[in-house]
Amino acid sequence: MADRRRVVGPTDGTTAPVFSSTSAPPDKPVRRDRGPQDLRQIFLKTSLTPPATGSSFLELPSPPTHPNSSTLKLTCSVFGPRPLPHSASFSPRARLSCELKFAPFASPLKRRGYVRDHTERDLSMQLATALQRSILLEKYPKSGIDVFITVLDCEGEAGAVTGVSNFQAGGSKGGGGGGGGGVDVGLLGVLAGAITCASAAIADAGIECLDLVSGGVAALVRNGARGDDAMVQKNEEELVVVQDPSPEEHAPGDIFAACAVGYMAAREELTEIWMRGVVETSIDAEDNAEDDLDRMMGNAIMAATQTRRVLNEGVAERLLFAMNMAKPQDEMEIT
Asked: Is the pTM of this model over 0.85?
């Protein structure tokens, strides 16, 4: 006897119809219209989160060849210096805590979880290493400084659940033999942007620092990634170094190595170096030729130096606004 109080399913399994297109979607053109040393414009704004002591927002535009693709958007909030809890042990220097988290909707491929994974922990550790050398932590004993970075949007596979690019080590320099490139620069771009965004938020919070830290990225790519067909036919084995690489402008196998740095331009000091990929380097002290590693690091420092100009303008704009607000009402400048 059948149960009349519940809905009984069909005896045979059914499959929902799927209406898919028979034609494959057209491939997006992969080329870089910018020069090797041309950076995209950077939008940087401070003091956008009122509850925080200091805050900032950073955004990169989409590449000109892919105007509708994902781009990099970061927001940073700094809280502190604030006293440590009574249960904490005495600390003569301030404790710096950095936390980088991808928003659930940051990935263009798959939705991320709410619990931090190993990629976010690794990026948080790299960010703390880049910032702690620039902050005068000894000025704030028994205090804590908390830096929170939220990635709202990202490029390439940086927002994927795995968080690790399709990195393939080895292979010939020209990409033959099944090896070659395959480094995703999305994570390196996130780290460089987070360094710049966090440094602006720390300056907005009024925390004493030795210098501002700006991030820069450079990549070693195949010459064909620039779209110069004549040059590719002339020399297919040549590799070039480009600044501010975008995953949308290069084929997955055209990027052989990438490097992200944190750089204090006024002190000419590196605070962070993070590299992925395989490059050729020379250990001969008498060899004066510049190898791929030196060229890539030099271009990453040049990119960080150019980013520093945007960082200076963002901090100066906030400082001038605070100075005008501190003036009497009759002396305030109207702009």
From this structure: no
